Amino acid sequence: MPHDRSLLTLLDLRRPDLEWLWLASAGWKDERSRRRRRFADRRVATIFDGPAFRSRLAYDTAIDAVGAHRVDLPVVLGEREPIADTAAILSDAVDAVVVRARDHAAVTELAAACQVPVINAMTDAGHPVEVFSEAFSVLERRGHLDDVTLTFVGEDNNVLRSWCELTVSFELEVRHVCPPGHSLDEQFREDLVDRGQRGRVTVMHDLAEGVAGTDVIYTDAWPASARVPGRRRTAFEPYRIGTETLDAAGENTLLMHAMPVHRGDEVTAEAFADPRSISFAAKRNLAPTHAAIVERALG
């Protein structure tokens, strides 16, 4: 059973938890919430599979902000020993674990065996803290998530799924716009409904229809096979976001990108540089939002 302060998906947090953590994020952003002495004797292990440029930077800054000590471990879960053995060592050595790994099942197994909180910094199934941070940037500009429409353009992926998880607690509409054959898993969508979903998730294949009247256009990199000439690229090209897409959506529509960005593929350079694009501004919120999440884990 995972620790009660573990965070594996956004479904682990109720609406009051999310709202409190966004308030804490605002405090960390203006530095009113600094509590360096409180966590001076705490240790946080970080396990990152892959480069994880933004995740490493965000968590390093966040852990430093709360006053804890970061222990970076070059570990691949399950590679050299059973995950339960890794969990046993970590439980005696640190106060929390931040882990980014491709295999969500491995992270879930680690959390179940650990006696300390585990934070999912990204898996193939979800990117909860990243989306928690991106939603904070939307809140700063819209004041709420209820009645907000977010159009995600691209294939079914971990970032999209975490956005969809927020529709359980909020009256948020997530539109998934993608080429046929790249839609959200139907069972995943049904599971959200079964959890008492307050918002909704819809799947569309027409870009113009999907962005009409939306508050936020959100996108991510195309799959590697669509970034080279071929049938897959041809399928994705009608979904490239340009300034004309922003104009059609509405003058107050925001553009956000998960990053890294491939200008000329999923978004044009002009659209990404447009004043309506808040991608870089949103990434500036990674450190304070991650500080709020780490603070929660450390108790």
Automatic annotation (TrEMBL):
It holds the Pfam family OTCace_N. GO terms for molecular function: amino acid binding; ornithine carbamoyltransferase activity. The keyword Transmembrane helix does not apply. Keywords: Transferase. Residues 147-294 form the Aspartate/ornithine carbamoyltransferase Asp/Orn-binding domain. Residues 5-139 form the Aspartate/ornithine carbamoyltransferase carbamoyl-P binding domain. GO terms for biological process: citrulline biosynthetic process; L-arginine biosynthetic process via ornithine. Belongs to the aspartate/ornithine carbamoyltransferase superfamily. This is Ornithine carbamoyltransferase. It comes from Georgenia subflava. The lineage of its organism: Bacteria, Bacillati, Actinomycetota, Actinomycetes, Micrococcales.
